[in-house]
Amino acid sequence: MSSDLLTTSLSILFQGLLLTLALSAASIVGGTLIGLLAAVMRAFGPMGAATVARLYTELFRGTPVLITLMFIYFGVSYFGYAIDVFAAGVVGLSVYQGAYIAEVFRSGIESVSKGQWEVSQILGLSKAQTFFSVILPQTGRIVLPPLVGQYLSLIKDTSIVSMIGMSELMHGGQAIVDRVGKPVEIYGLVAVLYFIVCFPISRWVRRHDRRRSVLS
Amino acid sequence: MSETIRTATQDAGPKPIINLARVSKSFGATQVLREINLDVKAGEVLVLIGASGSGKSTVLRIMSGLETADAGEVWVNDVPLHDARRAREIRGHVGMVFQQFNLFPHKTALGNVTLALIKARKMSPADARKRAMDTLDRVGLADRAAHYPSQLSGGQQQRVAIARALAVEPGIMFFDEATSALDPELVGEVTEVMRGLARDGMTMVVVTHEMGFARKTADRVVFMDKGVIAEQGAPEHIFVNPQNERTRQFLHRVLDH
Questions:
Q1: Using CA atoms, how far apart are residues B58 and B56, in angstroms rounded to an integer?
Q2: Complex prediction ipTM
Q3: Measured between alpha carbons, how far is A26 from A28 in angstroms, rounded to an integer?
Q4: What number of other Cβ atoms are within 10 A of residue B169's Cβ?
Q5: A124: chain B residues, CB-CB within 8 Å
Q6: Run of H or E including B193
Q7: Angle at B98 between CA B94 and CA B102, to 5 degrees
């Protein structure tokens, strides 16, 4: 590989990595908000809202993320609107991962004893105050390890967005392989880059988890 | 005209702070309360005793607004708890201490007490902190303010729970088997705090298995059996000379142990 080609290739990978990080960050925020909303609807909402939330989680847990992305990207243009591939990726990943994140939050909310709600009610806290000041902080401790696990899976799932043509890290790798070959080296390097992003996060949770078990 | 009203009020005598009239409650097919009538006067210490399943905890939960009666009227602190639209007015005006403490595990003792003051009462953090320290001091735990519940003994946790309830300055305090989850040697420090409250004139409704507390501190003891009030009266009446056969059997069982 000439040094020129190497520079171009590294630059493509670097641009791709940045886009992967941006896509991940936006989808983590979106997925968490959707997941939290669905969990709250399912746990405390009226019958209709709870059913909608349940259908939502079951639907997206039962279909591949690629189908979700395709539906959003091509579906929107089918109805005559244009959607930019980054936006389609964020919406697709958020909606898809939100279904899993909802289940993580739901199990966390349900693990907090009913007595916490009762004492808060008697003390005069509103339902919303109880949820945000009493229940949610407690679910945080239970929910954090599986939640971060879901985030890691989301970061890796961003590679699938290359299938609808977004030039993130995976797509960058493919583009280079198409031009210069050397798939083992290039995809190996791409894998290392994903690993460099995910591993510290995974390590941090494990350390955090261990410290917590020492405390309690 | 205003004079007539005043006379009418005087004729009625002091209004009870709690009034249950023909209150019934079922959970599924099980009827746990059958047309209960019960008044509690301001400043009175009422102790509910009875076997488990007799309905005493349900009475307490209805009085505190945690459960709604199926039938009958429930007035607490001038709030009609049987009226779904107004029942929530009771929140923040009564205190309840639970068997399982229900402290907020993610907050320190101080944080447990200040939370409702800041969020529900809208007190400034500084004022809330001062009030919380005063209440923690009242239960003898000012020096444990920075401790988390997991760092406190069961008796200390329950005293923090009492301080948390007292800090909102409730008109009535409910105790639902407040000492049942405690190791025997820790019961005394909690009943001591409860006695202090009774001496200070707090209106209290207490569900307990501590017959010593009932005998020494209650103004009136109510014995419940199968969803009805089987017998009630002054402690010396209930414990020395019970009239009802089931009261006698119950006391024989619990005092024998």
A1: 5
A2: 0.90
A3: 6
A4: 13
A5: 91-93, 116, 120-121, 168
A6: helix B184-199
A7: 100
- State the sign of the Cα–Cα–Cα–Cα dihedral B60, B65, B70, B74: positive
Q: Which residues of A82-100 are buried (b: 16+ CB within 10 A; e: fewer)?
A: eeebbebbbbbbbbbbbbb
- Amino acid code (one letter) for A201: I
Beta-carbon separation of A122 and B102 below 8 A: no
- What does the angle CA B192 – CA B193 – CA B197 come to, to the nearest 5 degrees? 115
> Do strands B94-97 and B45-49 pair parallel, antiparallel, or not at all (unpaired)?
unpaired
Number of cross-chain residue pairs from A and B with Cβ atoms under 8 Å apart: 60
- Round to whole Å and give the CA distance between A137 and A109: 10
Give the residue from B118, B119, B123 with the most A CB atoms within 10 Å of its CB, the best one to mutate: B119
What percent of chain A is helix, strand and coil (3-state, nearest 5)?
90, 0, 10
CA–CA distance from A179 to each of A9, A89, A183 (Å)?
10, 25, 10
Cβ within 8 Å, pair B106-A141:
yes
Q: Is A133 in Cβ contact with B115 (below 8 Å)?
A: yes
What are B21's two structure tokens?
């009239």
Closest CA to B57 of B249, B185, B207: B207
Give me the residues paired with residue B97 across strands: B175
Whole-angstrom distance, CA of residue B114 vs CA of residue B103: 12
User: Measured between CA atoms, how close is A176 to chain B, in angstroms?
Assistant: 51
B147 touches chain A (CB under 8 A): no
Q: Which two tokens stand for residue B211?
A: 């017959």
pLDDT for A181 equals 87
Q: List all residues 6 or more positions away from B23 whose beta carbon is below 8 Å from its beta carbon.
A: B33, B35, B36, B37, B38, B59, B62, B69, B71, B72, B73, B74
Predicted TM-score of the model (pTM): 0.81
pLDDT digits (tens, 9 = 90+) for A21-64: 999 999 999 999 999 999 999 888 888 999 999 999 999 999 99
